């Protein structure tokens, strides 16, 4: 049976159902859906019969589904079975690739942030870089999943990607695909304090964080002087892991709330009592690459006055996505934006981001470069902040910048965070000895 007959039959079935509902007086809006499905069938039939070359019917339908979802917001998408399996691997295992979070911006694959210690990060890729070709093949106008598929592959295989960065001429980066590890948490001592890096939120992040905090407590004999929690360029991940990470630093109370189209599905998530650091001062490092789950943690610790935030305004993704398998995953899955999240004080950071308590830039600021910084509010079809709030322009006058002679190999944001943490620890110690 030709595809146009199938489409017509589907349209008739849905339309008949709509008319039956209408006859009972419940809903007449499905009649318009019926007409639109007929239109879809007509267009598909025309392409099938009259296009200059033979077409792949399945590819056409998949493209239509992708276009439908991409018209909603930047984070809703269709994952075909291969992409769905890749997503499952990313959240629970490891995969062969380059290690970066990307999106579509102005029909270009654009880097949100490279993952720490991956081929992308080691090659010097930066947020805002536009990837215009893979192994010499242009990917301008490609769907995100198509572009990602080209960049992923077997560990050890080389790949050349062509980058467009600002006003520079396009240039090539030669990378070798590597295992993108699950390990999203690491810690070390830094100037007498514990430096804790959380690079993402996969299924094992909370477990790894708890192990790291136990090691920190053992190292400092239970008297931790202070912690730097670094979530810069953390693209986010699983909501439950953001809650688990926040809970480790809070002694009960609200972490985040989520609100959905159906108010009956709204949720509030509270931390269980028991701050694992026993009140030790915390400084959280964020920047424009800190997104989603990272913003949930930063917002919870800021609102609950448990930590001081240092760095630059975060990405501003305040929406929740649900993964909806189709036929058990055999037909792939939908990644659908189904809700919004709110920090404990009830604020939505959708489009606005979280502003740090101390604005500190990693490098000296060129005012012209500010326009090239990528954020949620600049993505196509981004959800509006329901309170009408907009992302504030950064007042360069209040941003601490590295001195002109500061070495680019040294981390100025971390340097200032350690100074702020040391001052906080001194104040707490002085209060205890009074």
UniProtKB/TrEMBL annotation:
NCBIfam families found in the cross-reference section: prc
Provenance organism: Hyphobacterium marinum
TM region(s), chain numbering: none
SMART domains: PDZ, TSPc
Stored SUPFAM superfamilies: ClpP/crotonase (SSF52096), PDZ domain-like (SSF50156)
Family: Belongs to the peptidase S41A family.
A Pfam family matched in the record: CtpB_N-like
Keyword line: Hydrolase, Protease, Serine protease, Signal
PROSITE patterns to which the protein is assigned, alphabetical: PDZ
Protein name: S41 family peptidase
